[in-house]
């Protein structure tokens, strides 16, 4: 039964966005080491070890291609299909990854290269939700009270925290749905900050699957300290 269900779900292409400039880090954050293993290697090793993932498309800046190719070889990443050159924005880079994916991909699993602590359990859970609902994202409930501010810096309102979630990656979509949303965004000249928003723009709902507070995105120098503390807590 498990084998049949796996065959029915269709091919899953993981698209890893690794094209950022790392300006806030001061160095290439994806090559920084967490306990001796580069951030990007940790991300790719997790995806490579997920039986639900069939191929990996790594999207990066042209100047980083040599380093990242060497990294995939050094860590024996088996599912790499290709390394594609990204665009000026995250959205353009993900679109480049979609174009480089296999034509028979049934789902796109879009993930940040700078989220090295995403667990296989979270990835599998989001994939399962997307296969059921058509679109899903990892997400966790907001812990802090969120304020909406005006341009003058004063608080305008305080939304109910019980309805607020912080989205993470992976974000998984039926391939046909994502391509429809992609074409609509291109036609309208729209840029979105995440792929859920892209799909929401064409009127489709995205399911909030379980995320993990440890699934942080490395953006600023202190994030490296937090990531290493989380790894130590997990016993690595």
TrEMBL record:
- Please name one Pfam family that this protein belongs to: IspD
| Site, Transition state stabilizer: residue positions | 24, 29
- Which reactions is this enzyme annotated as catalysing? 2-C-methyl-D-erythritol 4-phosphate + CTP + H(+) = 4-CDP-2-C-methyl-D-erythritol + diphosphate
Keywords noted in UniProt: Isoprene biosynthesis, Nucleotidyltransferase, Transferase
E.C. no: 2.7.7.60
First and last residue of the signal peptide: none
Q: Which GO terms describe its biological process?
A: isopentenyl diphosphate biosynthetic process, methylerythritol 4-phosphate pathway
User: Where does the record place the site Positions MEP for the nucleophilic attack?
Assistant: 161, 217
- What terms describe the molecular function in GO for this protein? 2-C-methyl-D-erythritol 4-phosphate cytidylyltransferase activity
Family the entry assigns: Belongs to the IspD/TarI cytidylyltransferase family. IspD subfamily.
**Protein name in the entry:** 2-C-methyl-D-erythritol 4-phosphate cytidylyltransferase
Q: Which organism is it from?
A: uncultured Anaerotruncus sp
């Amino acid at each position: 039964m498990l084998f049949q269900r796996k065959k029915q779900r269709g091919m899953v292409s993981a698209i890893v966005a690794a094209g950022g400039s790392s300006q806030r880090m001061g160095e290439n954050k994806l090559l920084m080491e967490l306990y001796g293993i580069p951030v990007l290697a940790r991300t790719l090793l997790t995806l490579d070890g997920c039986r639900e993932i069939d191929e990996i498309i790594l999207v990066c800046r042209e100047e980083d291609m040599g380093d990242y190719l060497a990294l995939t070889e050094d860590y024996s990443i088996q599912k790499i299909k290709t390394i594609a050159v990204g665009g000026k924005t995250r959205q353009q880079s993900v679109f480049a990854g979609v174009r480089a994916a296999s034509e028979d991909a049934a789902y796109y699993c879009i993930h940040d290269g700078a989220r090295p602590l995403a667990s296989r359990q979270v990835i599998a859970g989001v994939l399962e939700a997307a296969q059921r609902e058509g679109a899903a994202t990892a997400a966790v409930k907001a812990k802090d009270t969120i304020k909406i501010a005006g341009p003058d810096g004063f608080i305008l309102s305080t939304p109910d925290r019980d309805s607020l979630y912080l989205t993470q990656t992976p974000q998984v979509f039926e391939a046909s749905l994502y391509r429809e949303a992609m074409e609509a965004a291109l036609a309208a000249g729209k840029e979105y900050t995440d792929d859920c928003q892209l799909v929401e723009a064409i009127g489709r709902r995205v399911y909030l699957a379980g995320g993990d507070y440890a699934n942080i995105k490395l953006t600023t120098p202190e994030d490296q300290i937090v990531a290493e503390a989380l790894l130590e807590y997990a016993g690595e």
